[in-house]
Amino acid sequence: MAAMIFFYIEFHSIEKMLGIPPGSRLDEFIHWRLLPEKDLTANEFAKVLNIQTKHIEGPAFPPPCNKKASVAVCMLGTRWEMREQYNLAPFYKKNVLAYLGGTANVDMFFNYGSSDPDHENDLGEMWPYADRIVNNVSFTKYRFRCPPKKRPLERSGYGLALRMESCLRRIQEQEERCGHRYQWIMRDRPDVYHNEPLFRGKYLQDLDPTKIYAPCLWKKWGVCDLFAMVPRWHAQAYYNLTATMPTLCIPNRLTTEYTCEPDELPWEGLFPECVLSMQLIKAGIDLVDTVRIAGESYLYNIVRNCTCDDNGVAVMPPKYFGPRAGHCGQNVPGASVHC
């Protein structure tokens, strides 16, 4: 170990002498090659993360039982403050709840980041007794490299997976306590602008209870993971990554057309959409037969904080340019921030 540390320090000095910029691809490659090769298990990887879960006791804890509800919503993500800032509440009521049977048919489970509580005013008013969980996951750089032909699971993607699993556990606990099983578990984000009717205007009773409804299924990409309506009996496959991916080193490709191409850089993680496809396949789900497209256009309207140009027009920041960049929050009707 001492020899490795000495070698690392000496190599770092040589890098400085050679003028290799810190953070460059060559610098990243050198440091990656110095790491020990290991196929880390999920439990081992969790030890290098600082994972903290805290339950927020709302007006009622545990939440009251609602045996009329057939849908549990896992509202999971960050940037909750955008809901009020960009007036997302009326669109959620009109284009989501109206097609799910209203608030009486939906139980809400909030899964926040550390800075998000107290920003769910609109949803909190509709579900004052919603279950509330704060998950903080502090990431460190990988301290290992995967064996050949494998790539590490993206660190932020793994953090998201942990939060999805914690959300599913809370739903399961509520089911067991109340003696009531939901029919659907919906995954949604607080920063999605639902400007079109859910499922292209279909109501809950029109959906096939054996299918997963997701925004897209693309070849060489996977299943879009920003939203999904998942039948209860597929919930373990969709929400429980570590049950199907026992290690953090994922094969570059599976023998299916709905997976990602290998990344250019061996230390970069796979896209979450690709990992979701892999875990569904490993759980025995036929993607083409099971995944139904829920309607792409509304889902990609993730609200962004845009900049205003000289003509008073909201412009997407350069880093978000692309067909799935999202929607400028300033352009949402009724938004409190305008150009």
Protein described:
The protein is built from 12 helices and 16 strands. It has helices spanning about 1-20, 25-35, 40-45, 80-85, 90-100, 120-125, 155-180, 235-240, 240-245, 270-280, 285-290, 295-300; strands spanning about 50-55, 70-75, 105-110, 130-140, 150, 185-190, 210-215, 215-220, 220-225, 230, 250, 290-295, 305, 305-310, 315, 325-330. It has a 6-stranded mixed beta sheet, covered by helices on one side. Strands 5-11 form a two-stranded antiparallel ribbon. Strands 7-12 form a two-stranded parallel ribbon. It is globular, with a radius of gyration of 22 Å.
Quaternary state reads single chain
* Structural class designation: alpha/beta
Stretches where pLDDT is under 50 for at least 5 consecutive residues are 1-11
**Helical percentage:** 25-40%
As laid out across the biggest beta sheet, the strand order is 1-4-3-2-6-10
Radius of gyration: 22 Å
Shape: globular
N→C terminal distance = 57 Å
- Write down the secondary-structure element order: HHHEEHHEHEEHEEEEEHHEHHEHEEEE
Strand fraction equals 15-25%
Major beta sheet summary = 6 strands, mixed
